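User: structure tokens for this one?
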Amino acid sequence: MDLIANIIIVSLVIVGIIFTIITVIGVLRLPDAYTRAHAASKSATLGVMSLLLGVFLHFWWNEGHFSIQLLLGIAFLFITSPIGGHLMARAAYMSGVEPTKLTVGDALKVDLKKQREEMEKNTQKE
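Assistant:
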């Protein structure tokens, strides 16, 4: 059992390190704030969660210590990191940060235009 547990733990740590390296490369190499926020939120979440899960399993299986703090940290990270990335990208969009020329579509622009038109109609009725 110890060999299987150690293989699982080491695998999780290696996966966490790989995703963290992918995050760093993505943040450094991607062209605009939106793709950087995506790389930072998605792959960093997977990387850090894998590392924390590996640490949790190490202490639980090898040391006999069940850490509720690590589980809460994993849950908190899983919930907040993607939301934070989305909010950063949304704030950049609302601030007027232009996407790269490689961007194909802008669905949010169409939705915001429709909402503004509806708001203007509602204010004119009053």
